[in-house]
């Protein structure tokens, strides 16, 4: 039976601690020596393979001189770290879950992105991302970092171990004009170019289908070669990771249902090309 990867919240904490150490340009061996730990202990904490206690996290943050809201956030994450689901409420800055999701995507063998209103994140162009975040109310100072993080996530599609990416997007996402006609024309051309790749499949759920299994909201389903799948859900002010089989299975069934009603890859590309040409004519 496939094993479970480190729990999402544990991995999120691990990523946060590793980020703070690297931001201070501290070597792992240097930090371990200051705390009287072995380097392997710190390494396992930073990869999520060993849960760090609240006291250990506090000690690390003292060395990294992390204070205020950021310290409180990481300390809170260390509590009840093995919970089945990780809910993160978002108020400012770049969400910790965004960094954790990038790590999971790098490990995945298949990523399924379903979207209703917007183009899937791994296939968004920089101008589309900026326009989308601006219209969604992201604070202007936070936008560049969030854009860069999403573009960094997209690099997984060019890696030597690139996962299979399957996207199911509602036709509504193609008609919703984000950033103006030219931004949309560029975005849809990019979708077509990406769909030509062997490891990328773009499937459109046409208006003719009516209601469908994912109409209530977007989600990501990630499959791994050596572990159980997990699901990530993202909302305006919150994000949620699910990794328990009972929680993930309904999303697996939803993907199967979408596969049965979505346009085929070739038909999907033809529709996208038609709409791209229409946006070009509006410029």
TrEMBL record:
Q: Which residues form the HTH cro/C1-type domain?
A: 17-71
Which parts of the chain span the membrane according to its record? none
Stored PROSITE patterns: HTH_CROC1 (PS50943)
**Looking at the Swiss-Prot or TrEMBL record, what is one Pfam family this protein matches?**
HTH_31
One Gene Ontology term of the molecular function aspect? DNA binding
Full protein name: XRE family transcriptional regulator
Q: Which organism is it from?
A: Amycolatopsis balhimycina DSM 5908
């Amino acid at each position: 039976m496939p094993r479970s990867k480190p729990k999402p919240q544990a991995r999120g904490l691990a990523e946060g601690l590793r980020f703070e150490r690297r931001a201070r340009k501290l070597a792992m061996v240097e930090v371990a020596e200051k705390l009287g730990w072995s380097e392997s202990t710190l390494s396992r904490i930073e990869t999520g393979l060993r849960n760090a206690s609240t006291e250990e996290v506090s000690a690390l943050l003292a060395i990294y001189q992390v204070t205020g809201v950021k310290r409180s956030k990481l300390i809170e994450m260390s509590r009840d770290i093995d919970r089945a689901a990780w809910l993160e409420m978002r108020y400012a800055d770049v969400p910790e879950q965004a960094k954790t999701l990038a790590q999971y995507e790098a490990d995945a063998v298949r990523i399924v992105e379903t979207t209703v209103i917007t183009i899937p994140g791994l296939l968004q162009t920089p101008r589309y991302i900026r326009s989308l975040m601006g219209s969604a109310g992201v604070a202007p100072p936070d936008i560049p970092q969030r854009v860069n993080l999403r573009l960094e996530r997209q690099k997984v599609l060019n890696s030597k171990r690139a996962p299979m990416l399957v996207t199911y997007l509602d036709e509504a996402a193609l008609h919703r004009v984000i950033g103006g006609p030219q931004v949309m024309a560029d975005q849809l051309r990019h979708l077509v170019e990406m769909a030509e790749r062997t490891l990328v499949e773009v499937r459109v759920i046409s208006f003719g289908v009516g209601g469908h299994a994912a109409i209530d909201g977007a989600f990501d389903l990630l499959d791994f070669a050596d572990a159980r799948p997990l699901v990530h859900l993202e909302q305006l002010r919150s994000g949620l990771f699910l990794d328990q089989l009972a929680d993930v299975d309904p999303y697996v069934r939803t993907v199967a249902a979408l596969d049965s009603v979505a346009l085929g890859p070739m038909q999907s590309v033809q529709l996208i090309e038609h709409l791209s040409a229409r946006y070009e004519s509006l410029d």
